[in-house]
From TrEMBL:
Keywords: DNA-binding, Transcription, Transcription regulation. InterPro entries: DNA-bd_HTH_TetR-type_CS, Homeodomain-like_sf, HTH-type_TetR-like_transc_reg, HTH_TetR, KstR2_TetR_C, Tet_transcr_reg_TetR-rel_C_sf. It comes from the Bacteria. PANTHER family: HTH-TYPE TRANSCRIPTIONAL REGULATOR BETI, HTH-TYPE TRANSCRIPTIONAL REGULATOR RUTR. It comes from Nocardioides dubius. This is TetR/AcrR family transcriptional regulator. Pfam families: TetR_C_24 (PF17932), TetR_N (PF00440). Gene3D superfamilies: Homeodomain-like, Tetracycline Repressor, domain 2.
């Protein structure tokens, strides 16, 4: 016979999940503002308005919390990029354009905390060096897969994918610094996307 969770236990689980998401979200914001060294368990607990001891019911250490915060940000970004790429259709140019535009939206408008967290170098301790590299590789792989598909079918043209990808991410990471204000932001995003696409086309 299959065990079925009671409504009370389901409510407790949902409440626990919400609290955990709140803690992770606060950790992400503090990481963006202050970097790894500026984040403490006490600061996260205070922002969440919970006791430090309560936070330790969810995470055993600062590093465990930071690791989950990094993974949460990575998964959110990858989900958004993947969904946008799939919605763009099969063409490599359209998919790449969608990826670039979505990345700008993420970095500039929707979740600007992503950029400082994954900036390089960012003063992270050694134990996070490899996880951060892995997260960047997972992100880069989405763009690379679309570009390689486009090169294979002749829709894209690029002499050196690695160099072009480095240039692309440089463009994306700096966009928030100079993109116009709200009134011109959509036009600025479109112009930036069009210029970035030229790294991979002969148009």
């Amino acid at each position: 016979m299959t065990d079925v969770a009671s409504p009370a236990s389901s409510r407790v689980a949902r409440r626990r999940d919400r609290r955990k998401q709140q803690i992770v979200g606060s950790a992400v914001r503090l990481l963006a503002e202050h970097g790894y060294q500026g984040v403490s368990v006490e600061a996260v607990a205070e922002e969440c308005d919970i006791a430090k001891a309560t936070l330790y019911h969810y995470f055993s250490s600062k590093d465990e919390l930071v690791g989950e915060a990094l993974e949460s940000v990575t998964l959110d970004v990858l989900r958004r990029l993947s969904a946008r790429s799939e919605a763009a259709g099969p063409g490599a140019v359209d998919r790449l354009r969608a990826l670039i535009d979505e990345q700008i939206l993420i970095l500039v408008e929707d979740t600007p905390e992503v950029a400082p967290i994954f900036a390089w170098p960012a003063g992270w301790p050694e134990q996070f060096a490899e996880p951060l590299k892995t997260m960047r590789r997972r992100h880069n792989a989405l763009f690379r897969a679309v570009i390689e598909d486009g090169l294979a079918d002749g829709e894209l043209d690029c002499a050196d994918v690695d160099v072009a990808l480095h240039c692309l991410h440089g463009i994306l990471n700096q966009t928030a610094v100079w993109l116009p204000g709200d009134a011109d932001r959509a036009a600025g995003r479109a112009a930036t996307t069009a210029c970035a696409l030229r790294l991979f086309t002969s148009m």
